[in-house]
Amino acid sequence: MKQPRIVKDLIQDQTASLTPADRQVSDVLLRDYPVAGLKSITKIADAAGVSTPTVIRLARKLGFEGFPELQDALRDEASARIKQPIRKHERWPEERGDSPRFRDFAEAVFDNLSATIDRLDPATFDKIARVLNDRRRRIFLTGGRITRSNADYFYNHLQIIRPGVTLLSQSPNVWPQYLLDMNGRAVLILFDVRRYERDLARLAQLAKDRGAVIILFTDQWGSPISKIADHVVNAMIEVPSSWDSTIAINLIIEALIAEVQSRRWDAAKDRIEALEDMFKSTRIFRKKP
Amino acid sequence: MKQPRIVKDLIQDQTASLTPADRQVSDVLLRDYPVAGLKSITKIADAAGVSTPTVIRLARKLGFEGFPELQDALRDEASARIKQPIRKHERWPEERGDSPRFRDFAEAVFDNLSATIDRLDPATFDKIARVLNDRRRRIFLTGGRITRSNADYFYNHLQIIRPGVTLLSQSPNVWPQYLLDMNGRAVLILFDVRRYERDLARLAQLAKDRGAVIILFTDQWGSPISKIADHVVNAMIEVPSSWDSTIAINLIIEALIAEVQSRRWDAAKDRIEALEDMFKSTRIFRKKP
DNA sequence: TATACGCTGTAACAAAAGCTACAGAATTGG
DNA sequence: CCAATTCTGTAGCTTTTGTTACAGCGTATA
């Protein structure tokens, strides 16, 4: 029904039938296209040196209901132009027999990923990578009910890359003993998305009190731990599901792993090779007779 | 006098001192940045699910006189971005002499996701969802060294949605006892990506012999288990890193969770509600009236 | 020169946007 | 548990915006 119209083309097409005043308006619109048209009608009329009704008349001539509709079209164009190239993946092959649910889901994930990347402060990423790269630091990780898997995944890799990495036990009642080891050299990596968990907040506070560096992975709204964390990564987690998606968190985790590993390749290499050897020599599981 | 302020940075800087409602607004603003903020205050408030005064309060917190001033800043940013399309995403390298490693990584992930979706047969997806949805079946999950976390993540959700879900212990030497329970009604979900593990293959064969349905999540090349698996999902895992990326696998997992949950909402609902009651977690988000 | 007609601005007005004050709700701290 | 504090929405208000009606102006044509 209402397909997107490119205002610039509409002006081009009608250029012949435009009156002098119309032209002054369209000049203004095209000069800083399409953003100029996103100001108020008064400002535009002013900038063009015409009256506001003239602007409305132009909008009508271009086929819009009124000025706000013209503005909507311009806003859409601005949005489309600004969207990162990375977002272009959103096009979907039509012929695929996917259920619309799957399609919507996947599209939401793409959306979340680009928004998360967009929102991530490069400096934060860099600082986190630097902290993780510091061999003198001890690293502790834990997460909430769901995000525990993310912590686990991160731990899995970190622990291979560098020494001094610990995944906290799942039960909060044994956390205090880990706290003993958390001094100014410690780093506590926490995962806390909505349905924020009190235990995690308490742990964070205690660790902070002992001087640990807190790195938090949370959602777009931010766990209460944000207030005391040294570095915060906000990931978009909403998808059309009754569950949240932690894929954006995973992206940052994997990117961090890649970053840390590449910064200290030599050191990590030895550890990995040693590990490979050990895995080869322990084969416990045997086929049963 | 009026130096241009980058709204995104202002939000980033203040992120800790923002209230939940503020965050919902900033979330909307950042999602389609900066164009989303060029709509009327009413529309924005609506989209964020908050009242208009909240939007004004956020604008003030960010240091603006009122909403129109915030909007002016956003408009300037939009204009600037459109004028220099090349410099758009390049805050990455410029910032600190950072290599565009992160960007390359992210782009590889996007490619992997699209390719994985492309390659995934909708019928396979459907069949897997159907199997998972069958309450009479018992479900067992396990993965390899790295993919164990993925199995864990899947388990976490499945176990909440439906009964009869078991995550195999990490050590292969206790696997045989699980095999006792794997009959024709059993489903074994395996994760095996390159550096394919022999133990997993053996487990798969034994389970198959006992009549279990095998669902395999593997990489683009395919674990040897592919030959005997009933359903196989191939995910693209290569990224510019010395590690592989399991994000594409996660996407399919999450999509399956969403699918299964929505197919049997009633049954799952009770379980989840019961669980919610058991967990005492902070309630941050209010339901909209 | 008269007059018809399109172009444009002025002025008045309805709609909406933006803002303020206040009170109820939620959260925090004792 | 209650008091203090913070957060947030409602209702009402002012301002601005978008719109309409109309009248003046200029030009073209008879």
Question: What does the model show?
Answer:
Two copies of one chain form a homodimer. With 289 residues, the first copy, chain A, is α/β, with parallel strands linked by helices. Chain A has two domains: 7-82, Winged helix-like DNA-binding domain superfamily/Winged helix DNA-binding domain (Arc Repressor Mutant, subunit A), CATH 1.10.10.10; 114-281, Rossmann fold, CATH 3.40.50.10490. Chain A contains twelve helices and five strands. In chain A, strands 2-1-3-4-5 form a five-stranded parallel beta sheet. In chain A, helix 2 (20-31) packs across helix 3 (41-48). Chain A starts with 6 loop residues before the first helix and ends in an 8-residue tail after the last helix. Chains A and B meet through helix 5, helix 6, helix 7, helix 8 and helix 11 of A and helix 2, helix 5, helix 6, helix 7 and helix 8 of B. Chain B binds a DNA duplex (30 and 30 nucleotides) through residues 19-22, 40-42, 50-57, 66-68, 286.
Summarize the structure.
Two copies of one chain form a homodimer. With 289 residues, chain A is an alpha/beta fold.
Largest sheet of chain A: 5 strands, parallel
Number of beta-strand segments of chain A: 5
Question: How would you describe the oligomerization state of the chains in this entry?
Answer: homodimer
Give the termini separation of chain A: 69 Å
Along the chain, the helix and strand elements of chain A come as: HHHHHHHEHEHEHEEHH
**Low-confidence regions of chain A:** 86-90, 283-289
Query: What is the CATH T-level topology of the largest domain in chain A?
Result: Rossmann fold
Domains of chain A (count): 2
- The CATH superfamily of the largest domain in chain A appears as Glucose-6-phosphate isomerase like protein, domain 1
Radius of gyration of chain A: 27 Å
Structural class of chain A: alpha/beta
Architecture per CATH nomenclature, i.e. the level-2 architecture of the largest domain in chain A: 3-Layer(aba) Sandwich
- Cα shape of chain A: elongated
Helix content of chain A: 40-55%
Strand content bin of chain A: 5-15%
Structure annotation, total helices of chain A: 12
The greatest interface between two protein chains, and residues involved on each side, is: A-B, 86 and 91 residues
Average of per-residue pLDDT values of chain A: 83
CATH class of the largest domain in chain A: Alpha Beta
Order of strands side by side in the largest beta sheet of chain A?
2-1-3-4-5
